[in-house]
Amino acid sequence: MLPYLKRVLRMYKWISVIFLVGYVIYIIYDDYIFVDKIYSLSDLGTFLLIEFMYLFVYFLGFSFYYWLISLLIIFGYRVVKR
After folding, report:
1. Whole-angstrom Cα distance, residue 58 to residue 48?
2. What DSSP character marks residue 81?
């Protein structure tokens, strides 16, 4: 089972990087109106804090579902293989 988990972990790292880069690009595109109206450092700090909170929540959800599905597939494969 360890080789399967190593493979899944390697895939998780790459998919996480793609998810994070895609999310940042999406946020910049989606919230360009707000980015355009940043006039001071307090506005920038507020914007970044809110966006990082959303990023954290979405990344936790992504990680939970990724590992849930991966472990179910690995355990299902192990049961069928026996």
Report:
1. 15
2. H
The model's pLDDT over 37-55, given as tens digits with 9 standing for 90+, comes to 777 777 778 888 888 999 9
- Written as six digits, the tokens of 82 are 């026996």
Residue with tokens 């998780």: 12
Q: Are 58 and 23 in contact (CB under 8 A)?
A: yes
Residue type, 13: K
Q: In the chain, which residue ranges form alpha helices assigned H by DSSP?
A: 2-30, 32-36, 41-81
pTM: 0.75
Q: Following CA atoms 18, 19, 20, 22 in sequence, which dihedral angle do they give, to the nearest 10 degrees? A: 80
